[in-house]
Write a structure and sequence with these properties.
The chain has 305 residues and is of the alpha+beta class. Among the domains are: 65 residues, no CATH class; 42 residues; 105 residues, Distorted Sandwich (Glucose Permease (Domain IIA)), CATH 2.70.70. It is 29% helix and 19% strand. The chain is built from 6 helices and 12 strands. The strands form 2 sheets. Strands 3, 4, 5, 6, 7, 8, 9, 10, 11 and 12 form a 10-stranded antiparallel β-sheet that branches.
Length: 305
């Protein structure tokens, strides 16, 4: 037990002697009294606004190789540090390097430039010399003449629109566009070739009469479907054809028919013949056109000689 106490006493004396020797070799100056305060270390800086600790990422980027020299820098208490301290020559945080009022600064410069331009124009109109008169004319022209937007639009279209014309395959030779009315235009022919108009729509109010040769062939005026076929009587037969766009054509006074109900006919297809005439009298064809269930003048729809 006594031996252990003696060993402890020996260690204490040895430690005390080492500390006294180190204190004698490296005395602490008065100026170093605050070295142990963290905020006096180079990792911190004092700012009137607030005490700010530097961002560790910024510290690392400023010193990417902290182990380059282990014996150069000392720690907080003048002891050897095994990590090289960062070079913090500029100890201002990057957040405060940039001006807090960039808009005011830009506005100030713009105001100064505008003031200089105003002063230059005022001085130009103040004195009448060879050069100031030319400047006055330019300013007056810019303020009074209208801008030629048509010429600017033509230049923009010629410069930027379309494919590059310097490449032959892209040379712009596009013809002018033609608008479409969206309606279906089918061929329309006269139902009686060489027929002459003998009674007009103003007389009958529901159609016209065409005169032709005896038993001459009658054709469909437009493409459509046979809607009705009447039986033969002393006035002949009647054929009604339904067309597109809600149009109906009526063929009367036929002596012979070549179609049946629901037959599909094209414009110019034969549908029958006229009645046989007596002597030198011509045979007649009654022809009518209905649009949206209303009779209209056929002369305005089909070509009549």
């Amino acid at each position: 037990m006594q031996m252990k106490d003696n060993e402890k006493q020996g260690k204490k004396q040895k430690t005390k002697s080492l500390l006294d020797r180190q204190a004698t070799a490296n005395p602490i100056k008065d100026s170093d009294q605050g070295v142990h305060v963290p905020y006096n270390h180079e990792y911190f800086y004092h700012d009137d606004r607030e005490e700010i600790e530097l961002d560790p990422e910024v510290v690392w980027k400023t010193n990417p190789n902290p182990w380059a020299s282990w014996n150069e820098d000392k720690g907080f208490s003048n002891k050897r540090s095994y990590v090289k301290g960062p070079d913090l020559t500029d100890k201002i945080d990057p957040r405060y390097v940039r001006s807090r009022h960039p808009f005011r600064r830009e506005l100030k410069w713009k105001f100064v430039i505008a003031l200089l331009l105003f002063g230059a124009i005022w001085a130009m109109f103040r004195y009448d010399t060879e050069y100031t008169l030319k400047g006055q004319a330019l300013v007056k022209q810019a303020l009074t003449d209208e801008i030629d937007f048509a010429a600017a639009a033509a230049w923009y279209k010629e410069t930027f629109a379309g494919a590059p014309s310097f490449i032959p395959i892209f040379e712009d030779k596009t013809p002018d566009a033609v608008g479409a009315d969206g309606t279906v235009k089918l061929p329309v022919v006269t139902p009686l070739q060489g027929g002459s108009l003998v009674r007009t729509f103003a007389e009958l109010l529901n159609g016209i009469e065409l005169a032709g040769k005896s038993e001459e062939q009658v054709v469909a005026a437009e493409t459509g479907r046979v809607l009705l076929l009447t039986d033969q009587n002393e006035k002949g037969s009647t054929v009604i054809i339904q067309h597109a766009n809600k149009r109906v054509t009526i063929y009367g006074l036929l002596g012979k028919t070549d179609v049946q109900v629901n037959d599909w006919v094209e414009a110019g297809d034969p549908i029958g013949n006229l009645l046989k005439a007596e002597g030198t009298q011509p045979s007649l064809l009654y022809f009518a056109v209905k649009q949206n269930d209303l009779y209209i003048d056929p002369v305005g729809v089909i070509p009549i000689d």
